[in-house]
Amino acid sequence: MQQIIQQDTTKKDTTKKTGKNNSSIDQKVEYKADDSVKMSADKNIVYLYGNARVIYGDFELDASYIKYDKKQNTIFARGVKDPKTGRYTGRPIFKSGADGTAIADSIFYNSETTRAKVYGVFSEQEGGFFSGGQSKKQIDDELHIKNVMYSTCNLPHPHFGLMISKGVVTEKQIITGPVYMIIEDIPTFLGLPFAFFPKQNKRTSGVILPTPGEDATRGFFLQNGGYYLGLNDYWDAKLMGSIYTNGSYETSVLSNYTKRYKYNGNINLSYSSFKDGLEGTEAFANPTKNFSINWSHSQNANANPGTTFSASVRLVSTGRKGYYKNTAAGTTYDINTIATNSTSSSVSYAKAFSNGMNFSMAASSDQTLSTRAISLRLPEVTFNVPTFNPFSSKNAVGEQKWYQKITVGYSLQGTNRIDTFDSLLFQNDGLKRLRSGFSHSIPVNMSFTALKYLNFSLGGTYNEVWNFQSVRRKYTEFADNTYSFREDTLSGFKRAGSYSLSTSMSTKIYGRRDFNPQGKIQALRHVMTPNVSFSYSPDFTKAGSGPYEAAINQNNKPILVNGIPLKYSIFDGMAQPGSFGGPNASIGFGLDNTVELKVRNKNDTTGTGSKKIPIIQGLSFSGSYNFLATSYKLSNIGFSGRSQFTDKLGINYNGTLDPYSLRNDTLPGSTLRIRQDRYFWQTGKFLPRLANFGFSFDYSLNPEALKRKNEANDKLGEAANKKGLTDIQSEQLAAISRDPNAFVDFNIPWNFSFSYSFQYSNDGNTTTTSNTLNFNGDVNLTPKWKVTFNSGYDFKNNGLTPMNLAIYRDLHCWDMSVNWVPYGAYKSYSVTIKVKASILQDLKLSKRQGFYSTYR
């Protein structure tokens, strides 16, 4: 807390006496006081009482009592002792030039030589506070100090600090004699015979002290030590490393860069070699090598309007157990990150044109750590033309003609893709797995209203795909009518097109039932939105037309499956497989429902207020009937919706109804039931079979906690984007972004929330269900103690999922945190006591027991 004292010199006071001294010195001395101004007999000494103020050039001084000697050019100031309370009040507050404001018990200042002696000073300097002792300012602006406490605690009587027995403070450095630590007024053995502190008013380089600790299988360690390079105002770098007594090690390079009003980002490269197990085992003899590459880049929205460039790259090694398990999530020990099984990266560029067209290009990758599968898209290109009216006149007057309502659009997507495994990616034939292609889509549509309430839409879409690779299959048929095939990928340009026609109609139907206007429930409103559509597309799966080929066996005869010739698409597995289906002439139907209650508002003191409660939000049913299908013409009926019962509780649900009946298998001894092309009502059933159903909800006993957390995150984002932040402020915001759990909101007294998900499926023979329950919360035991927890329940194994407990203690200028995983595979704990201020971030005590156990 930096104290800022404002003086109001415009307020008029009839009791105030002011005066000026027209001395022969270059700068005049101005003084005033609220109570009284007295002078000695020879008028060389001025005594100022009550809110006294003296200004000499850029030196400003306020105190309860000031003595100004004109002859000696000296100024003395002190506070006064309140006779009633015995408190020392009205301490001198002074400021000199660009230096910050300081408070002292008393001060002696020579206005001619600008020398000063200060007793019991309290001042803020670049995130730290000096208090107590004696200070003497020399004519060359050097400051000599004696028995002064330096601390990041902002109290005049700090909880801890470094006691400087004597020292010299210059513009760029502090040189001291003996220095020792004091905690709660108790001197400790932690000290140095002398010390040198750089006092740069800019970014500077320096050593980063490591964190000592012990790991269950890797031994004692020194973690995250290294060197910080303050290269310039635009970018910096951290060289970090960790070593373990069993021979394991890890290194990393982290660099941040920024250009104001243009862009900012960071790059993090890390490499590690970990030995697990006992000495002499294979795991110990062959260390696991791990690496990670993280790059984040964002462009300022005002840098180049209409153009954006961003990057979010996260590539990690898979290794023996995966990067996150091997490195304990980069030594963060975060359980959720350790369980990560997939990563994704993207680098994208986008350009929006003034006529509405837009172009984007992105390179991306997806990794699955457990299977070591990797998918690369290098690059993926999209180009879109917004819908426009080709027959509409710019100067049209009056109602549009029917043909002027026709709209046309265009979109293009290009893909360059490789789907493989990381072990095969860089082999000689790695590029042969490349798949390239383009897809084009041209939608044509026309909308109009008929009979005032019916909304109609007519249109069609033409799609075409271009591929630069295609497949050919050679089939071998066996005597038992089974077959196998060998697939070859051929290079060369191939194209195929498809189209579809559609029309749709929708409207809204309103229903309302009014009840007693004085009752609790006043009205019920039901809104139904039915829609009907018809779509048609010809058969694009005919062999010899489009992308489909007939399956021919070794005797050049077609392969038959249930009497039907087998076919395959030459675009299977290619960059643009397209959408080429069989004949379709189907009617689609759907119904969306919304139900609301109008109830009396208890919070309205007039007794006439009401509020709406959405009972059902978007309960929809949908399905289709294909006239050209050879069997199973009616599709399954899907439904989904949401119900909001209270402000705290809302439920999402969805499911599928199967309209077809089941029959027993005709094979002897079989108990299987098989789906048949016969509707449920034809077998005497009243309702269709529920094929699957699911619902989920989340509930918070204190929704204000979630609201405040979201507001805090928004404010953090806004603060990070502000200009003119100091280095200390920027570093603190970056620390919050890196480790949000290290900063706890003690203003939220308690919170408990949980979420539940249920899934049910039934294929007629097997019924499966799954349940997922997660819960988390926190509580303030006292205004300074907070406990947080998160866990869940595993219904399959009938037990709790790994729990994480954290205890936080606000020690004003210090923080204490305890993180504990009491059971499970990641059983561990850590205790950390550290100074809040980033300027003394290495002043901490940490104890941690890792969760590693390679002997499971």
UniProtKB/TrEMBL annotation:
Domain called LPS-assembly protein LptD central: residue spans: 174-660
Region of interest (Disordered), ranges: 1-22
InterPro entries: LptD (IPR050218), LptD_2 (IPR045659)
A family per Pfam: LptD_2
Annotated protein name in UniProt: LPS assembly protein LptD
Source species: Pedobacter jeongneungensis
